[in-house]
Inverse folding.
């Protein structure tokens, strides 16, 4: 997406962006989060934190 590609229309661009966001939050591992996905980290944080009610 950052290589200067183009989309046939706005609908296709929105679809590709939503797929990327879903991948980034659900599957991609982040070193700053202990190599967990953001979704997994958030779930784990909510269940173990005293400060954030689950």
């Amino acid at each position: 997406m950052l290589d200067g590609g183009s989309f046939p229309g706005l609908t296709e661009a929105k679809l590709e962006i939503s797929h990327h966001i879903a991948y980034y939050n659900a599957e991609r591992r982040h070193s700053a989060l202990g190599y967990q996905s953001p979704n997994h980290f958030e779930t784990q944080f909510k269940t173990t934190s005293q400060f954030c009610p689950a």
Summary: The CA atoms of residues 16 and 29 lie 20 Å apart. The helical segments are 10-26, 38-48.
